């Protein structure tokens, strides 16, 4: 029985990760209906883990339940702005905790990630830069040492994944963002929680303003368009 439960949990987690990846990558678009039978066939598993994965996505805001079925959530520009606002508050708490708790080993690893980001920025390696950005934030989250914060930030990451790289459409944004990350890292290395918080706030607000401008100027004129 225990082994059966473990296998059930494994399959449900697998279904959840597959569906989340499909949504964040654009394989499943906003307003697409999530058909259990079709998805079970696509992912070669039974309907039960698919159903439970869909329920989990709905509880996290990535899917929405309607009278006629479950659909991929569609976000308005205002929704994105509100999600970004919450994400900013959580990220600021993360770097405050990281600055207060970081050990010498933590700081050395953080510097390695930061140097990798700077190298990618110098050679205009967008894919490498995105990977180093994710690595850097993972290290900061580990340094913060708060599992509940980690859970909430992972949820935020999934919700904003559809638009997270829009700011990089600005050719100067990668260099600017790298410099902003360096300011955050320097404050953490000084064990300055307040300085780290201010630097992260300014960094995220800068990115949000670019994304918001693009969404409002490009998406808003298209009536009914949602993300």
Can you give keywords for this protein?
2 strands; 2 domains; Four Helix Bundle (Hemerythrin (Met), subunit A); 227 residues; Arc Repressor Mutant, subunit A; globular; two-stranded antiparallel ribbon; mainly alpha; 9 helices
Q: Report the principal-axis shape.
A: globular
CATH superfamily of the largest domain: GntR ligand-binding domain-like
Q: What's the helical proportion of residues? A: over 70%
Largest sheet: 2 strands, antiparallel
**Which CATH top level class of the largest domain fits?**
Mainly Alpha
N-to-C terminal Cα separation, in Å? 42 Å
| Count of helix runs | 9
What share of the residues does DSSP label as strand, in percent? under 5%
- Per the CATH scheme, the topology name of the largest domain is Four Helix Bundle (Hemerythrin (Met), subunit A)
Q: How large is the radius of gyration?
A: 19 Å
Poorly predicted runs: 221-225
Strand order of the largest sheet: 1-2
Give a structural overview.
- This protein is mainly alpha-helical and 227 residues long.
- It has 2 domains: 2-72, Arc Repressor Mutant, subunit A (Orthogonal Bundle), CATH 1.10.10; 77-219, Four Helix Bundle (Hemerythrin (Met), subunit A) (Up-down Bundle), CATH 1.20.120.530.
- Helix content is 73%, strand content 4%.
- A hairpin with a 2-residue loop joins strand 1 (63-66) and strand 2 (69-72).
- The longest helix has 27 residues, at 193-219.
- It is globular, with a radius of gyration of 19 Å.
- 29% of the residues are buried.
- Mean pLDDT is 88; it is low at 221-225.
């Amino acid at each position: 029985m225990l082994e059966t439960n473990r296998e059930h949990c494994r399959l449900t987690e697998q279904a959840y990760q597959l569906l989340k990846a499909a949504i964040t990558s654009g394989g499943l678009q906003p307003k697409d209906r999530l058909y259990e039978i079709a998805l079970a066939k696509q992912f070669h598993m039974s309907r039960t883990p698919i159903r439970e994965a869909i329920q989990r996505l709905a509880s996290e805001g990535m899917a929405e339940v309607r009278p006629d079925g479950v659909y991929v959530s569609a976000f308005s520009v205002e929704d994105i702005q509100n999600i970004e606002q919450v994400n900013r508050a959580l990220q600021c708490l993360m770097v405050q905790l990281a600055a207060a708790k970081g050990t010498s080993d933590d700081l050395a690893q953080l510097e390695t990630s930061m140097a990798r980001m700077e190298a990618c920025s110098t050679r205009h390696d967008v894919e490498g830069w995105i990977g180093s950005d994710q690595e850097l934030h993972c290290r900061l989250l580990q340094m913060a040492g708060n599992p509940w914060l980690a859970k909430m930030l992972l949820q935020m990451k999934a919700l904003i994944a559809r638009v997270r790289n829009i700011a990089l459409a600005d050719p100067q944004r990668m260099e600017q963002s790298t410099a902003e990350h360096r300011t955050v890292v320097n404050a953490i290395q000084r064990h300055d929680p307040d300085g780290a918080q201010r630097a992260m706030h300014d960094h995220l607000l800068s990115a949000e303003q670019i994304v918001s401008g693009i969404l409002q100027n490009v998406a808003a004129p298209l009536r009914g368009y949602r993300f």
